[in-house]
Design a protein that fits this description.
This protein is of the alpha+beta class. The chain folds into three domains: about 140 residues, Jelly Rolls (Sandwich); about 90 residues, Immunoglobulins (Immunoglobulin-like), CATH 2.60.40; about 120 residues, OmpA-like domain (60s Ribosomal Protein L30, Chain: A), CATH 3.30.1330.60. The protein has six helices and 22 strands.
């Protein structure tokens, strides 16, 4: 009985190996321009087998090319085009050249008459060996993204400069454009004000657009969005004006794609010296802890933006607790720790510690000295921002 059971388990285990084994795309016959493989229908192509060695490469192509691969593809969406070339072996070094297709392309390439519109021949500067096109191309191992139209055709030539290398995966990425419109007004009197607008990709911290409203406070800007359903970046729309607190809205990809159908209007509060609880907001904390509650994340980020945009501003962070009066040592320690946590966050994000003071107030300035509900207790557990220089 044991032998039969062991045999059954071996069959099941072998079947599992087959199910989860990796399937590689054969690229053994794609080493020349004329053999270019059409990968238009893919958003992710690969992983592939290793490129074949070819020592008879035309000198007009890669200087040291001995493991080339050629692809061709057609763009199916107008927007901003990017891609990643991801080696299976992170130590491999893939170079690439991207060409815009034209009549008799391969003949012209073989005769040395064509120049790539994008390329990269630098050794990878990242730990995963990835190269390709990024939005701004500032990284050592990436070239700049490309604005493309539906129907544009391209050739992509890859080369692994190392012998005994592995294959690769190509991940195509797209950005589309939408038009955002709206107004910026003074919260107190409703008057339109001139303001700056920043649209930023939070995952990569890339500023996609920086613009201004018209003199009367209305704006219309073109912004970029990731156009792929299998990615989930977040975007930040930040609006600020001189002597006003900035306003920030964070959008998921799905939310951002709906913005073209509606106006996004902003109301800004003016900055004043002293406490700005109404205009900036208050940062609240969990009971008996120096951990902020999730609803206060926006206030924390708004404070950071304010400090980044106003280089001369100096503040005192006043920490508070929900406790009995008079305050105990525990109250003072916890309130001071809450203020220090916010200071640490600001300093970690580039704000000079000389611009930030902290003070533990204990429980001597409670919003509700005798709280009757958990909600009222929550209003006591806080950090307030006192602007002393602006």
């Amino acid at each position: 009985m044991k032998k039969i059971l062991l045999f059954v388990l071996l069959i099941a285990w072998t079947g599992t190996i087959q199910i989860f084994s990796q399937t590689y795309v054969d690229i053994s016959n794609t080493s020349t321009c004329k053999q270019a493989l059409d990968i238009s229908r893919f958003s992710i192509f690969g992983p592939t087998t290793a490129p074949e060695e070819d020592e008879n490469i035309n000198i007009s192509s890669f200087n040291l090319a001995i493991h080339p691969t050629w692809y061709k593809f057609t763009i199916n969406k107008t927007g901003i085009f990017m891609f990643d070339i991801i080696p299976q072996n992170q130590k491999d070094n893939y170079d690439f050249m991207l060409f815009k297709s034209e009549d008799e392309f391969c003949k012209k390439y073989d005769s040395g008459k064509l120049t790539p519109i994008r390329s990269n021949f630098n050794p990878p500067g990242n730990s995963k060996g990835i190269t390709g096109l990024s939005y701004n191309g500032k990284e050592n191992d990436f070239d700049k993204s490309l604005r493309v139209n539906n129907g544009d055709k391209f050739y992509l030539a890859l080369n692994n400069v190392y012998k005994n290398g592995k294959g690769h995966t190509i991940h195509f990425k797209e950005l589309k454009t939408i038009i955002l419109t709206g107004t910026v007004t003074n919260k107190k009197n409703g008057k339109l004000i001139k303001a700056d607008i920043i649209w930023q990709h939070l995952k990569d911290n890339i500023v996609f657009i920086s613009s201004q409203t018209e003199q009367k406070g209305s704006y219309e800007i073109e912004v970029l969005l990731n156009n792929q359903s299998n990615t989930f970046p977040k975007y930040e729309l930040c609006v600020y004006s001189d002597k006003y607190f900035p306003e920030i809205i964070v959008y998921s990809t799905a939310e951002a794609n709906n913005l073209a159908e509606k106006e996004v209007n902003f109301e800004l509060y003016k900055v004043k010296k002293g406490l700005n609880n109404e205009s900036l907001g208050v940062i609240y904390f969990r009971p008996n802890k120096s951990v902020i509650v999730s609803k206060s994340e926006k206030v924390k980020m708004k404070l950071l933006k304010f400090m980044q945009l106003n280089k001369n501003a100096e503040i005192i962070l006043e920490g508070h607790t929900n406790g009995l009066f008079p305050s105990t040592d525990v109250d003072f320690e916890l309130s001071a720790k809450r203020a220090e946590v916010i200071k640490e966050f600001l300093v970690e994000n580039g704000i000079s510690p000389a611009r930030i003071g902290t003070e533990g107030m204990g429980s001597k300035k409670e919003v509700y000295p005798i709280p009757e509900t958990e909600e009222e207790e929550g209003f006591n557990r806080r950090v307030e921002v006192n602007i002393v220089i602006f």
